[in-house]
C-alpha cells in the first residue's frame, strides 16, 4: 500500500469537515509557530494572524487603487483643459505652437516640440513645417504607438531648444485615425525631460495616445485648409 502523504491528510480534512466536529478538542490543543517570533500560538490565534495579514494586504491594494484613481482624475482634468484650449485657437498658424505650449504647461513637461508636414500651401513656410528629413517622416510613420525611453539620438530631439537636457523622451506620431492605424504620419509631437525615468519604456501610454489623437484631429484643418 502507498504511504499516506500530507496531501492525502489535507484533502481528507478539507472534504470531511465533520472530523473537527467529532474531535473539537484538537482545535484547542494544536500549537503552531508564530511568523512574528519563535513562540507557539494556538490554531485560532494563527488563523487570526493570517486574517490580519490578508486584511493589511487588501488595505494596501485599496490605497493603491485610490491613489491611481486620484492620479487619473488629475490627468483627465488636465487633458480636458488642454483640449479646450485647442478649440479656442482661431488662427491655424497658431495651432501647433498652442498645442506644444499647452502640453508643456498642463502636463508639466520640461520641453515640447512639434513638426507637421504635408500642410496646405500657405502654411508650408511656417517654422513648424520646416526642417524635417524624409528619414524622420519615415520613422514617424513606422511608430504604431508612442515611443517612450532614453534619447537614442533621434532627429526629432533636435527640434527641442536644449537637446542636452533631453535625457528621456516620448515621441508621438500624428496621423489620421488612431495611433495604431496604418495611415502615414503627417507630424510628430516630442516630449522631453532631464529626468531619465520621466518617460520610460515600461510606462503606460494610454494618455499619450489620447494626446496624439486629439493633436492629430486638431491639426487636420492645417492640411485641409
Task: Annotate the secondary structure layout.
Elements: H1 6-15, H2 18-22, H3 25-29, E1 31-33, E2 40-42, H4 43-87, H5 95-106, E3 111-116, H6 134-142, E4 147-150, E5 168-174, E6 187-193, H7 206-224
Antiparallel strand pairs: 1-2, 3-6, 4-5, 5-6
Report on this structure:
The chain has 225 residues and is of the alpha+beta class. The protein has two domains: 6-52, no CATH class; 89-224, GAF domain (Beta-Lactamase, 2-Layer Sandwich), CATH 3.30.450.40. The chain has seven helices and six strands. The chain has helices at 6-15, 18-22, 25-29, 43-87, 95-106, 134-142, 206-224, and strands at residues 31-33, 40-42, 111-116, 147-150, 168-174, 187-193. It has a four-stranded antiparallel β-sheet with strand order 3-6-5-4, with helices on both faces. Strands 1-2 form a two-stranded antiparallel sheet. It starts with 5 loop residues before the first helix and ends with a helix. The mean pLDDT is 87.
